[in-house]
Amino acid sequence: MITDDEIKWISEYCPSLNINQDRSEVSGLINFRAAYDKEGGFTWLIDDKQMAKGEILQDSYEVLVKKADKLTELPSLQLKIDEGKINIGRHFYPDGKACLCGPAERGKFIQSGFLFTKFLERLVVPFLYEQTYFDKYEKWPWNEYAHGSAGIFQSFAFSDGTKEDIEACLQDLRKDKNWPRIKAMLSGHERVTESSICFCNNPKQIRKCHPDILFRMAKLRSAIQKQSIRLN
Predict the structure, then answer these.
(1) For residues 101 and 91, what is the distance between their CA atoms, to the nearest angstrom?
(2) 128 with 207, same domain?
(3) 123 and 212 fall within a common domain
(4) What pLDDT is stored for residue 170 in this prediction?
(5) CA distances from 114 to 49, 122, 158, 197 (A)
(6) C-alpha angle with apex 111: 105 to 114, nearest 5 degrees?
(7) Is the C or the N end of the chain the one with fewer CB within 10 Å?
(8) Residue 89, CA distances (Å) to 84, 98, 117, 134, 174 in order
(9) What is the C-alpha separation between 166 and 229, in angstroms, rounded?
(10) The pLDDT of residue 46
(11) pLDDT for the residue numbered 112
């Protein structure tokens, strides 16, 4: 999970992090200073003298990062914070692990070649930044995906629509307890209209429950057909 060069980098820029013997776990304190600007995006200000546009926040979190069991998954991130903050509304799964990105983004990140330092810069520190931002303003600094399968459809809608993007999204959709029905909708076995009962199992019609997801689901369904991907 971590190269020799990355260990040197971590010892210089994140000296409070500890790496276990087989390099499968990283734990300790991350002290960060970072900024976000809508035009310039997110910047981790590693150098204390470095400046950037946008809201500059400085904070520290005690973290635990564990190597993933599968090559198609990212390492998990857990924070040692008030248990009341560890909930789906704050982008945490029921098991306490952080939701760092959508499935399409995860797939691209892994395909581009995993580097732990890149994982810190592009996913971990931005997650810590948004948590501090939310504590301060009670809102998120950037747009967020919806929870559950709705967020997966959103993730695909903003992707390039490649076969890898499709597979990454399907991998997560299969974990949904409503997968049999979602599968029927994506395969075309169930005709989907605005009046259909929502895929999230809410008795409301889609147009009254998740109206913005209808065309996003259609995009994924079309991509599945074009790529001749079998659903199972």
Answers:
(1) 9
(2) no
(3) no
(4) 96
(5) 29, 11, 22, 40
(6) 95
(7) C
(8) 11, 11, 27, 11, 22
(9) 9
(10) 86
(11) 85
Looking at the domain assignment, is residue 85 inside a domain? yes
The overall longest dimension of the chain from CA atoms, in Å, is 59
Which tokens sit at 26?
């990283």
Domains identified in the chain, total number: 2
105 belongs to a structural domain: yes
Low-confidence ranges of the chain (pLDDT < 70): none
The encoded tokens of residue 108 equal 């691209």
Which amino acid belongs to residue 138? E
Cα dist from 24 to 15, 123, 125, 152, whole Å: 18, 18, 19, 28
Residue type, 167: E
From CA 188, how far away is CA 1, in angstroms rounded? 40
DSSP structural state of residue 29:
E
Q: Which two tokens stand for residue 38?
A: 């809508």
Q: Write down the H helix ranges in the chain.
A: 4-13, 103-111, 116-119, 125-137, 148-157, 163-173, 179-187, 206-209, 214-226
Residue 59 lies in a domain: yes
CB burial of 13-23 (b: ≥16 within 10 Å; e: otherwise) equals bbeebebeeee
pTM of the model: 0.87
pLDDT digits (tens, 9 = 90+) for 95-148: 999 999 999 999 989 988 899 999 999 999 999 999 999 999 999 999 889 888
Secondary structure (DSSP) of 141-169:
SS--PPSHHHHHHHHHHTS---HHHHHHH
Q: Return d(Cα 61, Cα 81) in angstroms, integer.
A: 8
pLDDT score recorded for residue 47: 82
Using the Cα atoms of residue 117, residue 118, residue 123 and residue 125 in order, give the sign of their dihedral. positive
